Amino acid sequence: MKFVNINSKNIPLLKKRVKAIEKDFVPFRKKRKNNPLEDYLVKDNLHMILVSDKNNFIAYISYDDKYKKGGYIRGIWVDKRYRGKGLATKLYRKAINNLKKKNIKQIIVRTWEKNAPSRLVIEKLGFRKYRTIKNDRIDGDNTVWFKLFL
Ligand SMILES: CC(C)(COP(=O)(O)OP(=O)(O)OC[C@H]1O[C@@H](n2cnc3c(N)ncnc32)[C@H](O)[C@@H]1OP(=O)(O)O)[C@@H](O)C(=O)NCCC(=O)NCCS
Known about the structure:
This protein is of the alpha+beta class.
C-alpha cells in the first residue's frame, strides 16, 4: 500500500473513481460547491493524501490548513473492500500530524449522524461533537460537526 500526495499524474486515476466515491456520501439538501481536484495543486491551503494498492486508487483524505482559524478535514473515503482495517484512522492520523506541524490548534470535521463508522473513527481520535444541523441531508439525516483541540 502506498501513501502519496495528490499530484498532476494521479488526478486522472482519482477522477475515474469519482462516481463510485460520490455514491458513498449522503448529499446535503442544499447543493454545495466542491473544489475541483485541480485546486489541490494550486491552492496552498488544500491538501490531499491518496492511497493506492497494486496501482489501484483505494482511499483518500483531504484537508484545509487555513479554514477560519484552524484545520478542516474536508473529505475521507475508503474503498468498500478495504474498510474496517484501520485505514481511515491511519489517514486521519497523518492529516492531524501534518496540521500539528503547522502549529494549528483546532481541527473540525463534519459527517452525517447515521454514519456509524465515520463517527466511530472521529470520536476515537478525540474529536467532540459541538454542533448538529437537523434535517440537513436529502434522506432527512442530520449533519454533525466535531472539533479536536491539539
Ligand atoms: C467512514 C470510512 C472512511 C471509514 O473507513 P475505514 O477504513 O473502514 O475506517 P477504520 O477501519 O479506521 O475504522 C472504522 C471503524 O468503524 C467500525 N465500523 C465499521 N462498520 C460499522 C458499522 N456499520 N457500525 C458501527 N461501526 C462500524 C469498525 O469496526 C472500525 O472500528 P474499530 O477500529 O473500533 O474496529 C469508510 O466507511 C467510508 O469510506 N465510508 C464512505 C464515505 C464516508 O462515509 N466518508 C466520511 C464521511 S464524512
